[in-house]
Amino acid sequence: MGKDVIIACDFPDGRQTLAFLDRFTGHKPFVKIGMELFYAEGPQIVRQIKERGHRIFLDLKLHDIPNTVKKAMRVLSRLDVDICNLHAAGTAAMMRAALEGLTRPDGTRPLLIAVTMLTSTDQAAMENELLIRVPMAEAVAHYAKNARAAGLDGIVCSPLEAAGVHAACGADFLTVTPGIRFATDDAGDQKRVMTPAAAREAGSDYIVVGRPITAAADPAAAYETCLEQFIG
Ligand code: C5P
To answer: Measured from the CB, is residue 210 less than 6 Å from ligand 1?
Structure first.
């Protein structure tokens, strides 16, 4: 898969999500379905969006004992999504079990990526609450290397970390990066943001864009601008 823009469909229910997607009359965007929508509507919303021809990143961030994650991934593998994820903090045993569960009887599977350190966790919280006493960039690169060694396809990280992750794990290890804003946007609650063009320069493979598209007066036009800036 090449570079692409993934729209974070952070809506509270299926009705609003489908009404939003109805506004894209041309190219069908790659969409991210997160916990809020999935817990509200269940697997049916994933099937409905898939039937409309969208590629899907199912962002459920699994983190549990290996056997539980393996069984949960087996269920998710039947949904025919394109990308699934989990927390690298679950350790290599959990990541390997997840891959096993996700692999369908015919050998195919969605891409599997790992959340390294949540961008809401800062250096102080990581040190004082998680007792991880190394610089954030080192922790992220280490988690990325663990994910790569376990056989995963990539990680979720800040675009600021994408180059470091590629240096540590190789150019083909995917970096999926939220925290994107147009130069004219308000950053909102995101602390460290980059424009689509800067994320391209930084080496992001996929950018995850929410409010700059979902809250735009013309979401389809904002999406096209984003594609143009990120892919060219
Ligand atoms: O609206 P905005 O562009 O900030 O949305 C970014 C999306 O990426 C949201 O769905 C958010 O939950 C997600 N995300 C993030 N930072 C992470 C992981 C996921 O912003 N580290």
So the answer is: yes
